[in-house]
Amino acid sequence: MLHYFVLASNLLCSVLTVKSFGHGSISCRDEKNEPVDWFIIYKLPKYVMEYSGNGVDYMYLDGSMKTWDLSPFKVNYSDGAAAYTLGQLYQGKGYESNSSAYLLYNDAPPDLHYDMDHGHTKGVMMFDETQGFWLSHTIPHFPPFPEKGYGYPSTGMFYGQVLFCVTYAYQQFHPISEQLMYTLPHVYNCSLPGPLGADMTILAQLCSGASPHLPKDRTVKKLVSAKGETFLSFVKSHLFVDDIYTAWVAQLLDTDLLVESWQRQGHELFSNCSLRRHVLNVSGVRLPGPVHFHSHYDHSKWCVSVEPEGGWVCLGDLNRERGQVWRGGGLICTQNTLIYSVFRRAVYSFYKC
After folding, report:
1. Rounded to an integer, what distance in angstroms lies between the CA atom of residue 306 and that of residue 345?
2. Contact 144/150 with Cβ under 8 angstroms?
3. For the segment 289-331, what is each residue's pLDDT rounded down to a tens digit?
4. Which residues lie below 8 Å from residue 69, measured CB to CB, with a gap of 6+?
5. Cβ atoms of residues 160 and 285 within 8 Å
6. Tens of pLDDT along 96-145?
7. pLDDT tens digits, residue range 16-39?
8. Strands (E), 193-278
9. How far is CA 105 from CA 159, 223, 278, 309, 316, in A?
10. Which of 195, 292, 303, 307 is within CB 3.0–4.6 Å of 259 for a Cys-Cys bond?
11. What sign does the CA torsion over 140, 144, 146, 149 have?
């Protein structure tokens, strides 16, 4: 098991150059519409204990904070971090720009049928020749086609959802593209104009609906944000037929994991202690407020190290569910102490083996 730990450590260790970005650059945007290196939104379920939810409230977190903040905005407003970030695509017909590229993907796309042939992945990328953002999320039917403007689906109000946005320099979209290739996302709208399309050949293939050749069934890569934050991206294709959490991520990171994911009754994968590193299902989530809800009301997918010595937290695409061992998808993992602390505290209860 030592080689797993060494591999993860080597992927994270590097000399990072901290960069700055201006207000006009394509980036994740915070609650004040200012550029931010990363943010996480935890959209609350409609029915929660100890809190009167309406299905559009959300908690917000970025690197300038110490814990979650209940946003004064709603996720279906034209204000707030999600709307401001995606506004770079929707407002002023940004989707028609010849100097920027974008990619919208969702296995449950808006206005189209649910797709079982592609990966269980959902997200948005937008970038120019300098930088851009990658917004991964768990919301079916979101976001709308660009010409329809920003909106939030009514079907996304019942369950809890998570949105994770990271700003990256342009060069990072090459490894991000390679990671997406493994998951085979259902791309329902995209634009790669001019030299961006010629340079981003893998994204061009995904936009065309092609299935690029995969040299293996899974891969992990280091990604570095615009301001030097390091992440590990785990992705698996449909050829890796196993639970990503139990069979791979927990073992490679060498840490026991608590996993929050939506599980349909009769299709769930139970807590697993059969391997050296264990994976335990979260049963209850508690956020500040207090906000308390059962995992059955939560469509988000995340995991966190049981013990702080590991300090890992991952956000991603896949549920611990039987049918999804056959689907492509991934996780974005970090040892950021702030992100770890808020998600570890969010575990209210869990199922032991």
Report:
1. 11
2. yes
3. 889 999 999 999 999 999 998 899 999 999 999 999 999 999 9
4. 59, 60, 61
5. yes
6. 999 999 999 999 999 988 888 999 999 999 999 999 999 999 999 999 99
7. 333 445 556 999 999 999 999 999
8. 218-224, 230-236, 257-260
9. 20, 20, 32, 35, 14
10. 303
11. negative
Tokens of 29: 């945007």
How many of the other CB atoms lie within 10 Å of CB of 308?
A: 11
Residue 13: pLDDT band by 50, 70, 90 thresholds? low
Q: What gap in Å lies between CA 53 and CA 46, rounded to an integer? A: 5
Amino acid identity, position 319: N
- Residue 110, Cα to own-chain centre: how many angstroms? 18
Of all helices (H) and strands (E), which one includes residue 313?
strand 313-316
* pLDDT tops 90 at residue 6: no
Q: Which amino acid is at 277?
A: R
Residue 310 sits at the vertex; the CA angle it makes with 44 and 233, to the nearest 5 degrees, is: 65
Is 3 a known active-site residue? no
pLDDT of residue 116: 84
Query: Structure tokens of 126?
Result: 């937008």
Dihedral sign (CA 334, 141, 262, 241): negative
> Alpha-carbon torsion 13, 14, 15, 16, what sign?
negative
Higher pLDDT, 50 or 167: 167
Are the beta carbons of 257 and 316 closer than 8 angstroms? no
